[in-house]
Design a protein that fits this description.
Layout: H1 8-21, H2 28-38, H3 51-80, H4 86-121, H5 124-148, H6 161-171, H7 181-191, H8 196-221, H9 229-259, H10 266-284
Helix pairs in contact: 1-2, 1-3, 1-9, 2-5, 2-10, 3-4, 3-8, 3-9, 4-6, 4-8, 5-7, 5-10, 6-7, 7-8, 8-9
């Protein structure tokens, strides 16, 4: 079944899943591959007909993240312009550079290996395995952090450019469906000395340039496409549902990680292990 014959119910389900899994460290891409496979929906998510729907999901997610972080971006750009004095200007420039440096590895790796990795997207068993690996990485990060025995609470601006680049390398793991972008970047942030709340904030700030780039790329690819009324309805509805869901989940995520600094990734790691296992069984049956 192509996107043109996808039902509105299926579109809403996929939008809800996108909104929940984009901020949380459980892989939005992995769930987008696994849920249709487990439910035996005959969807071709790589069909050009699916592109308008996917683009609008990203638009909804981007608007939600912007609504959550508009004050952060306003502070960064106002600071860069010198509105709050020299000290804040230097700090704002530093945070902006950290975000740029953290984004570079994924942009390069995505450009180099996008086509090579597409075969993995068509293999739900591989995606289920990567989702379980994502769970193991989340649990392992919490274990390593406890072994160090010291929880730091430094701000984003205290990161070095090297730290940002390493976090960016972690983000490259999300090129494999089932490995979470937010989970990978949080793993990197925690291992570079951030606490859960700050790592989550940096992760979601990093997400916005990536989601924006994906949206622009998808919009360019569909520039000559004729979009049917049915697809437009599904796409707009999907954007609205994904946006509202992502907004709520982003706020919940930030509060959860801020209030549970000692173990916040562990339940998500356990979920990914169980979900990957059950998805593998569901695909078979």
């Amino acid at each position: 079944m192509f996107a043109g014959t996808m039902t509105l119910f299926q579109a809403i389900i996929l939008a809800i899943v996108q909104g929940i899994t984009e901020p949380f460290p459980i892989s939005s891409l992995g769930h987008a591959v696994l849920i249709p496979a487990v439910l035996h929906w005959n969807l071709d998510e790589h069909s050009p007909l699916f592109l308008p729907f996917l683009t609008m999901l990203h638009v909804g997610t981007l608007l939600a993240l912007t609504a959550v972080f508009w004050q952060d971006w306003l502070a960064i750009f106002s600071g860069i312009l010198g509105r709050y004095g020299r000290h804040r200007q230097l700090e704002s420039v530093r945070v902006f550079l950290l975000l740029v440096v953290a984004t570079i590895p994924a942009v390069i790796m995505g450009a180099l290996f996008e086509h090579a990795l597409r075969s993995v997207f068509g293999n739900p068993f591989a995606v289920a395995g990567f989702l379980m690996l994502n769970g193991l990485l989340l649990i392992a990060t919490e274990w390593l952090r406890r072994q160090r025995g010291r929880y730091q609470h430094k701000p984003i601006a205290a990161l070095q450019l090297k730290d940002a680049f390493i976090i960016g390398i972690w983000q490259c793991l999300a090129l494999l469906p089932g490995l979470s972008r937010s989970g990978a970047t949080m793993n990197g942030g925690l291992l570079r000395g951030l606490d859960h709340g700050t790592a989550a904030r940096f992760s979601l700030l990093m997400a916005q340039p990536i989601v924006l780039a994906a949206t622009v790329k998808e919009a360019w690819e569909m520039r000559h496409m004729t979009i049917s009324h049915e697809v437009m309805v599904q796409s707009v509805a999907g954007a609205a549902v994904a946006g509202v869901t992502a907004l709520i989940c982003s706020l919940v995520m930030l509060r959860f990680f801020r209030n549970h600094d000692g173990w916040a990734l562990t339940p998500f790691g356990l979920y990914c292990l169980l979900a990957g296992l059950l998805a593998g069984v569901g695909i078979i049956f």
